């Protein structure tokens, strides 16, 4: 089994092929229009807008056969025999014989999915290109993409890990592991979380995970380790008692933090780097230029304008070129996550303007990029990234814990 | 103090953000009728678009509670007795964060049509989500109660002020910033 890259927009894991039952009935073609109108009124397909009301099939004899969806499986409360009075009336008027049909529960994300869905019952399909900002990948990028994911997996002995990469130079912008349970900036920043080396490999062999739909193996399959992943076990922090509770946090720091998921910490590190490298603040210059406007429109004139001396210095630095070269958040960058991010992290990646998101393992509990939600398909958002899942070959994962221990901890490998 | 009283304090925080040329959103966190934390949006200054007012106010509390030696279960208990007043509907990220922390109640000013996480785009405050289509069992704890529209006009007026002056940190091609036209 080789490394593999799958666009999540085009191939969702579990949700994509799931179906729901609807009540349908065969109808005569000449009543179709009237029935569609009536049923759309009394029983609109609220949560199944992608599903077409009528299915047309050619029978063996070459005669077209029409079926119509009457209602959803669990109709309104005042239902009788599984459907409402209104639907009952339609059924009686047209002497229909309801049957149960299966339809796709989610809109198709790719043409292949759509074709698959239509075998059950026709759906409508809007190609994802409707949304701006989507960008794919080139085949020659694949080796470096897989390399980045290897680096991320090595960083994630326990919990999630994130690596931000500038794909134009393949430079690593920042790295981070989960920092929810224990966090000491001086010790843990950009380094791996250690695990007991004797625990991992032996327990991995006895791992039991009935959920075979998810590609998991080695230590990633263990439920107890999975529960250490911040994006999976969102409320786990409440029960966790820090072993070093007696200690007090250092100035301005945290001993632990329920929201310091890997992606959030990686973004913070990238922002710090940005501030260091591009500290010539064009913002201050803009402030000066804006000063007049501000005072005109605000009753509370700002108090923190730069002093005159700084003013001239900043104005000298100011040029369109430097402005254009200064990165805006993580525009154009990729992020690699070992686990599919939760809703909080997925939205933080929207805010920070990432271009592409890569993750290795789906997060069935709280994943927001394919498993539970599909945030990147949400049209109202002001930014959209592409999402990819990287399938990691099992042999790689099986050998991983040893390899990882070797490079991340001082202890000798078992 | 009535809800509008706390919202006025949140609006003060939003004005503070505006004065610093930040997107004007502010918030306060209230426990037992007393303001125990406040925050204003700091996304431009930090170059970190996740530093929303809510995140700032949350970090103040986590720092303080840890400095007096509270552990995770105790902090969880504290958050369960806290209410948030924020000038704009929490975004999807912040609404998720508030659910993770288990805050008791959220009062917001104007709705956030583009990325609101408390009803506008997603409803992360509701504990029983409509994931039932997939047959998924919802294991989330109780969500939080959410009330919007408190002093919404004041919150919107601040946004108007901000967008009239232009976001100085926004990428150039996207929106003409007023200074450039001079």
From TrEMBL, chain A:
The family database entries (SUPFAM superfamilies) matched by this protein are listed as: Cytidine deaminase-like
* Assigned GO CC terms: cytoplasm; nucleus
InterPro entries in the record: CMP_dCMP_dom, Cytidine_deaminase-like
- Where are the bilayer-spanning segments? none
Q: Name one GO biological process term.
A: tRNA wobble adenosine to inosine editing
Sorted keywords for this record are: tRNA processing
- Could you tell me which residue ranges the CMP/dCMP-type deaminase domain spans? 254-388
Gene Ontology terms, MF aspect? metal ion binding; tRNA-specific adenosine-34 deaminase activity
Q: Belongs to which family?
A: Belongs to the cytidine and deoxycytidylate deaminase family. ADAT3 subfamily.
Q: Return the protein name.
A: CMP/dCMP-type deaminase domain-containing protein
Q: Which organism is it from?
A: Lolium multiflorum
Automatic annotation (TrEMBL), chain B:
Leader sequence residues: none
Give a GO molecular function annotation for the protein. zinc ion binding
Whether Hydrolase counts among this entry's keywords is yes
KW Zinc (keyword) present: yes
What are the protein's UniProt keywords? Hydrolase, Metal-binding, Zinc
Q: Which InterPro entries match?
A: APOBEC/CMP_deaminase_Zn-bd (IPR016192), CMP_dCMP_dom (IPR002125), Cytidine_deaminase-like (IPR016193)
Q: In this protein, which residues make up the domain named CMP/dCMP-type deaminase?
A: 1-131
The processes (GO biological process) annotated in the record are:
tRNA wobble adenosine to inosine editing
**Per its UniProt record, what PANTHER family does this chain match?**
CYTOSINE DEAMINASE FAMILY MEMBER, TRNA-SPECIFIC ADENOSINE DEAMINASE 2
Q: What is this protein called?
A: CMP/dCMP-type deaminase domain-containing protein
What is the source species? Lolium multiflorum
């Amino acid at each position: 089994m080789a490394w593999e890259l799958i666009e999540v927009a085009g191939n969702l894991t579990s949700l994509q092929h799931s179906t729901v039952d609807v009540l349908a009935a065969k109808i005569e073609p000449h009543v179709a229009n009237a029935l569609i109108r009536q049923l759309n009124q009394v029983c609109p397909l609220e949560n199944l807008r992608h599903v077409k009301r009528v299915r047309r099939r050619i029978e063996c004899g070459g005669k077209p056969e029409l079926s119509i969806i009457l209602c959803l499986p669990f109709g309104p409360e005042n239902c009788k025999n599984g459907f409402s009075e209104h639907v009952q009336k339609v059924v009686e008027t047209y002497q229909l014989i309801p049957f149960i049909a299966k339809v796709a529960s989610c809109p198709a994300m790719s043409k292949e999915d759509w074709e698959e869905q239509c075998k059950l019952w026709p759906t409508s399909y809007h190609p994802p290109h409707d949304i701006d900002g989507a960008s794919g990948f080139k085949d020659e990028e694949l080796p470096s993409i897989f390399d980045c994911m290897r680096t991320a997996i090595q960083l994630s002995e326990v919990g999630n890990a994130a690596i931000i990469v500038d794909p134009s130079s393949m430079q690593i912008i920042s790295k981070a592991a989960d920092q929810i349970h224990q966090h000491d900036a001086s010790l843990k920043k950009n380094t791996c979380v250690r695990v007991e080396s004797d625990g991992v490999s032996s327990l991995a062999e006895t791992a039991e995970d009935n959920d075979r739909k998810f590609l998991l193996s080695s230590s990633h399959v263990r439920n107890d380790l999975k529960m250490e992943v911040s994006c999976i076990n969102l409320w786990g922090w409440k029960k966790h008692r820090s072993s070093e509770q007696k200690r007090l946090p250092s100035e301005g720091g945290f001993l632990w933090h329920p929201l310091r998921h890997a992606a959030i910490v990686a973004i913070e590190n990238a922002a710090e780097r940005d501030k260091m490298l591009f500290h010539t603040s064009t913002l201050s210059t803009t402030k000066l230029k804006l000063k007049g406007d501000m005072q005109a429109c605000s009753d509370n004139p700002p108090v923190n304008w730069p002093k005159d001396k700084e003013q001239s210095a900043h104005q000298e630095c100011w040029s369109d070129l430097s402005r254009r070269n200064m990165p805006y958040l993580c525009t154009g960058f990729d992020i690699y996550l070992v686990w599919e991010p939760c809703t909080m992290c997925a939205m933080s990646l929207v805010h920070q303007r990432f271009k592409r998101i890569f993750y290795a393992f789906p997060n069935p509990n709280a994943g927001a990029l394919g498993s539970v939600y599909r945030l990147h398909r949400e049209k109202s958002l002001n930014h959209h990234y592409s999402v990819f899942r990287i399938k990691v070959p099992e042999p790689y994962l099986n050998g991983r814990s040893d390899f990882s221990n070797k490079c991340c901890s001082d202890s000798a490998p078992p | 103090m009535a809800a509008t009283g706390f919202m006025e304090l949140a609006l003060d925080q939003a004005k503070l953000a505006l004065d610093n040329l930040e997107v004007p959103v502010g918030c306060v966190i209230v426990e037992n009728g007393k303001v125990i934390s406040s925050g204003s949006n700091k996304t431009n200054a930090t170059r970190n678009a996740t530093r929303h007012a809510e995140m700032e106010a949350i970090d103040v509390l986590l720092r303080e509670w840890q400095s007096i030696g509270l552990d995770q279960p105790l902090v969880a208990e504290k958050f369960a007795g806290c209410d948030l007043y924020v000038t704009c509907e929490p975004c999807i990220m912040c609404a998720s964060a508030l659910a993770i922390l288990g805050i008791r109640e959220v009062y917001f000013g104007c709705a956030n049509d583009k990325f609101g996480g408390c009803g506008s785009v997603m409803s992360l405050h509701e504990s029983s989500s409509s994931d039932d289509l997939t047959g998924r069992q919802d294991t989330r704890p109780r969500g939080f109660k959410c009330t919007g529209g408190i002093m919404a006009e004041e919150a919107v007026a601040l946004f108007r002020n901000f967008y009239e002056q232009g976001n100085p940190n926004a990428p150039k091609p996207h929106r003409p910033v007023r200074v450039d036209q001079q």
